[in-house]
Amino acid sequence: MMCKRDQDPDTEHETGVMDAAFTSLLEDSVEELYERAPCGYLSTLMDGTIAKINTTLLDWLGLSRDQVVGRIRFADLLTVGGKLYHETHFAPMLQMKGEVSGIALDLKIAAKKRMPVLVTSKVKTSDDGEPLLIRTTVFDARERRAYETELLRGRQAAEEAHRQAEADRKRLQEALAVLQQSLLPAALPEVPGVEAASYYHTASPDLLGGDFYDLFPLGDGRWAFFLGDVCGKGPQAAAVTSLTRYTLRAAALHNPDPVTVLSTLNTVLHERYTSGETRYCTAIFGLLHPHPVDGKADVHWASGGHPSALIQHADGTADYLPTTGGLLIGVLPHAPFVTARAQLHPGDTLLLYTDGLTEARTGPQRELYGEDALRNFTEAQPAAGPKALVTALTGLLAGFGDGLDDDTALLALGVPAPLPIAPANDDQT
Question: Can you count the helices (H) and strands (E) in the chain?
Answer without folding.
Answer: 12, 17
